[in-house]
Amino acid sequence: MAWWDLVGQVLEQPLHVLWARLFERGFEPPQSVPMAAYTWMRFPDADGNNAVTYETWPEHAADRARSGFPAIKVSMTSYQPEDHIDLIHRIRAAVGDHTAIRIDAHGTWNYQEARRILPAVEDCNLEYIEQPVNFLLPQCYYPNGEKPPVRADAGGYQDEYYFRKMTELRRDIHTPLSCHWWTPPIAHPPGASVRSNRWEPDWYMLQRYDGADVSVPDIGLGLWGLWRVTQLAKFMGMHVTVHSNFELCMHLSFRAAAVSALVYESESAGLYLGSTPRLCHPIDNETIQVSDDVIEGGQFDWSGGHLQLSPKPGHGLRLDPERLERYRYTPEAIAPHRDYARKLYADYRLDRPRRTSQSGWPKQPGAETFSHHAYPYSLGHILGVDEGQDIGLELN
User: Of the N and C termini of the chain, which has fewer Cβ atoms inside 10 Å?
Assistant: First the structure.
């Protein structure tokens, strides 16, 4: 991001304009990028405020819709899987018919649960469903912390089982599916870094399976990789958006500039002969979860639900020395937040407790217990806990 910002400043062009010209898009990219407001169950803060519970979630989503967000994303991992059927219906009723709803199970449901739950929410007219099926065999099953074996020119059981189940699920329901691993699938040669742009489509998988409708890549592939995978997805008839990250405003602005230049499709008023219409979806936004930022002006104004890209050269944002000092990381500054997080961690109780454990057996009353962390969400490093974290497989 710093390198591209420097390039934009030297050439005196905003990044989205620079990239649209660099990739010869043939149009001036839009300065306004639509967002999907990411929502999830949320514990109250240390002052007892800002909780999002099973009961209050629909109104929380409706508040985001009233703010102008054209889409609401619902993370569905906290509660009993079947409880999300009622929750999604209540959110749809709260936000109305004209706000899109996308849901993300983060791979925490098994195939039988997904096949049972998803038909029950089809009447909610969902935009798409992200990763409804569980991860592949986690890293803890491999000896000495080794990663799952990398396939060469032939598929492996783990990968093929997952993509086969996603393909079968697509046949059972009408709502579109998305998946980080089918973006579409690509394969890096041995020793290649993710950002080296040394990859090819995984033709073995593409010839056999059709696992998703919506491509949701991250920008970890770098700008060139994002351009290639987006064009491949469009060639395959997939819709496209860009996934979220644990981000502050500068990172989100960078992502939005990339989407404006590389993902957006220009349109002609009234004439759609030979074009592929309505491929693009609003991009995910997690920045709405934070109250301030370390850039000049602080947190973005989200009234309107769109990100307005800066007309200044580069990404157009500048660090705020006063805010940098105010939020500087010190053991003293982080201590109260860490202490509160540890209290939640030690006595993890949901407002709507699960009825079964991860094993599927009836769950005993009381707090949750943590046996391991699964990719990608681990609190161990934040809490100072020396714990490992399981990884299903290398993401695209």
Answer: N
